[in-house]
Amino acid sequence: MPTFTAISTGFSAGLARAESIGAGVMIAAVLVITAAAALARYLGAPLLWADEAAIAAMIWSAFLGASALFATRGHMAIEMLSDRMGVRGGRMLALGADLVVLVSALGLCWLLWHWFDLPGLIAAGSPEALAEASFNYIYLEPTQTLGLRKVWIWLVLPFFALGACVHSVALIAGDLRALRGGERGQKRDEERGQA
Amino acid sequence: MTSLLSLGGLFLLGVPISVALALTAVVYIIASGDAVLLDSLPQQMVSALDSYGLLALPLFILLGEAMAAGGAGRRLVALASAMVGPVRGGLAYVSLIANVMLAAILGSTVAQLTVMTRMIVPEMEKAGYPRQDAVAITAAGAMLAPVFPPSMMFILYGVIAQVPIGDLFVAGLVPGVLMTAAFFALIAFKARRAPYPQAAPLTSAARKRALIAALPSAAIPAFIVAVISLGLATPTEAGGLAALLALVLGLFVHREMHWRDLGPMFIRAALSTAVVLFLVAAAQLVGWVLAYANLPAQVGALLAQAAQSPVAFMLLLNVILILIGTFLEPIPALLLVVPVAAPLAAHYGIDPVHLGLVISINLSLGLLTPPVGAALFAAANLSGLSPGRVAQGLMPYLTAAFGVLLVISLWPLLT
């Protein structure tokens, strides 16, 4: 029967793969939109929506990629202390750092829950009624040129926060297992997860 | 104070710098008793990225990926070999020239160092160069990446300080040329003293072949600088068009890239971009609370007592930047320093483009200084030398680079 570490590592690896692909697609969109806008401007028919669309794609790419990077500890960090603390000390620090990431991600989930206020939206019945009742204009704020509401751009944040939670839980499970001395078991779990 | 302590503690724990920055802002907000500000925090993170100038960043990272996948590094080394000819220390000059050309494509010290160390250090060792010197010369060449356009540091500085990125790109040419000249002089001195081996002569047919093969790769940086300085395109548009051009070259002209390579290439570019952009988003939170706390004005009042003139301010700023750059990666350091330094520099009447060059170059040099230089460790890792040995070999080049930095700090006309 697969352990919690194996399940969480496997789920995190699969999610990171999906997030990376999403981030890559968005970067490709940034390239296509920017190049098309440059050519269109040169030909005297500027695409008014292009800048905002490219920025929206970049924002989605950045947060999807940032979530995926938690899975591989790919974010910049200062490892001066962990490099000097030996294997066990380094793992303890890694566990501490991963716990901090998890707490931060959970904190962001809480802030987003308040901001998106789904229960409030359901209770109010419409974005307009929600804005009137609570001055929360999240579902009404428009983009300038895209003809979309900004909430479609902001929607990447819940994906990011939940992804960061999943990845940090998987890393913490791996840290704990490694600290208990089950290094071989961890490698096996990771292999299973990747498979 | 609580925020500073928490930032230091989180850094030491090994928490991602971006998360540590965001948490520091949260700690400050809670400590200041304005918890209502927390509600705006997610929106602030997104609005940090809502910038047209920032679009240049993924596009230039993509350009670097496309050029590397299309074999640009190898072609530029061949072109540099054809240019240098049979002189003493020839391969050392080749390494430097190829680095200058690559700097005009990549814009990141660590990326450039990785490409060049793998490619040219084994060749130099085979030719009889001591490994320490080969690594030092190649790493010194990689210092040029953030100076020549397109530079990631210039793009970020331009966005934060609201300075035209094109102006920064063009202004970076003079310090870039000065640093290259200083490194050339050092190599010439060491080539006689060591002495370095003489490069083998190339036939004129081989030179012609190298020139033709490298021409498109060498033309892309020229295209970028030309369209930006002539005002034909914004840096973002230039990045997009150059990246597209690089893909077309790799797929259809050089044919070293396949359609199946595109997916992984876009993903690599997206993840490299995400590291930087997430840092920008997190640093925005710190900048936001700093502005709320009116910290730039407080630091300004302190500095005004210590530095009475623009020259004294620039010297003091350089010392502070060297200290920060020694412990912090250049990009997070830039994101933290600029919101405080830019208003102060304006108070002293310092040109923001000049300030951008000094800050970007100074912090980038920190990548190669111990104890926390990412590029220093990358060079040590790739070459199998200890970081101490690499740092020792690099010392003359770092001294020369700091000398150039001092010159451009004191004579703004050069930029």
What descriptors fit this protein?
heterodimer; A: mainly alpha; B: mainly alpha; 20 helices; globular
Account of the 3D structure:
The complex is a heterodimer of chains A (195) and B (415). Chain A is an all-alpha fold and 195 residues long. Chain A is 75% helix and 0% strand. Chain A has helices at 4-42, 50-71, 86-116, 118-124, 127-134, 151-154, 156-179, 183-194. Chain A is globular, with a radius of gyration of 21 Å. The model of chain A has no long low-confidence stretch (mean pLDDT 89). Chain B has 20 helices and no strands. The longest helix of chain B has 34 residues, at 259-292. Chain B is globular. The model of chain B has no long low-confidence stretch (mean pLDDT 84). With 415 residues, chain B is mainly alpha-helical. Chain B starts with a helix and ends in a 5-residue tail after the last helix. Chains A and B meet through helix 1, helix 2 and helix 3 of A and helix 1, helix 2, helix 3, helix 4 and helix 13 of B.
Write the layout of secondary structure elements.
The complex is a heterodimer of chains A (195) and B (415).
Chain A: H1 4-42, H2 50-71, H3 86-116, H4 118-124, H5 127-134, H6 151-154, H7 156-179, H8 183-194
Chain B: H1 2-13, H2 17-31, H3 41-49, H4 56-69, H5 72-84, H6 90-103, H7 109-127, H8 131-142, H9 152-161, H10 165-171, H11 173-193, H12 204-229, H13 235-253, H14 259-292, H15 295-306, H16 310-327, H17 330-347, H18 352-365, H19 374-383, H20 387-410
